[in-house]
Amino acid sequence: xxxxxxxxxxxxxxxxxxxxxxxxxxxxxxxxxxxxxxxxxxxxxxxxxxxxxxxxxxxxxxxxxxxxxxxxxxxxxxxxxxxxxxxxxxxxxxxxxxxxxxxxxxxxxxxxxxxxxxxxxxxxxxxxxx
Length: 130
Prior knowledge:
The structure is a single chain. By secondary structure, the protein is mainly beta. The protein is 11% helix and 55% strand. The protein has one domain: Lipocalin (Beta Barrel), CATH 2.40.128. The protein has 2 helices and 11 strands, in the order βααββββββββββ. The strands form 2 sheets. It has a 9-stranded antiparallel β-sheet with strand order 4-3-2-1-11-10-9-8-7. Strand 5 (71-75) and strand 6 (81-85) form a beta hairpin. The chain is globular and about 40 Å long. Keywords: Cytoplasm, Lipid-binding, Transport.
């Protein structure tokens, strides 16, 4: 249903990480920091309002707060701030970042996030922990 996204998810695995982060121009220290990083993603959902927080090992967090269909201030993987309108398409959350498109969906109880940049598809899967 509508509350499908709410929960806490822990990084389980990813595909094409290095290719993708190189394509979007992440610095090598950020790339090393993020590789196989046990990020915990916490999603709070209230209807169309979302708070999407990523907890990184060592205490760093990034939070994106948005409402489906309304423009919101967002932050990229690389820490850049910009405005975007997040959409819901076929049960997936879709956001267009400055140089990549990001989708998130719940698939078999897991959070599956896919980012696409210049033909490189980065897939990150996280398992529900709460």
